[in-house]
Amino acid sequence: MTISMYEASVPVFSTRLKALSKVLAIAEKNAADRKIDPQVFIGARLAPDMFALARQVQIATDHAKGAPSRLAGREVPKYEDSETTFADLQARIEKTLAHLATFSAKDIDGSDGKSVSLKLGGQEMTLTGLRYLLDVAMPNFYFHVTTAYDILRHNGVPIGKGDYLGTR
User: What fold does the segment set 10-165 form as a domain?
Assistant: First the structure.
């Protein structure tokens, strides 16, 4: 049995980004309800040496747009990384979802053995498509989506597992 590189990437990224979008909407409403400046949440981080919420969303979308692009042999879209509001973050997610919608299984399936080279954390690496997807792109994507969720939860936003999974 072979893995569908498309099914393991594009639908997963899309589903998680839609859930993240809903979590951000809940956070924005919660900030308004509690009369908290939204920038408190946008700039919040779990630890002093960790990235703030906005950067977590940026990196998550970077992995979501980068993985299928690299696997399909396409140019990875470049974003400005200038988001400073919930509306900006929502627009970035929407732009990423629109990019993901341009891929089909025929674009990505069969890329498991393809050589993928990239620079990550200042380090140049080359992996097979399968190893890149499963060992780099997906873990990093989940880390940053989860950290975004955790930042908001830590700041009292009433979200739960169902919101993270997109089932609520």
Answer: Four Helix Bundle (Hemerythrin (Met), subunit A) (1.20.120)
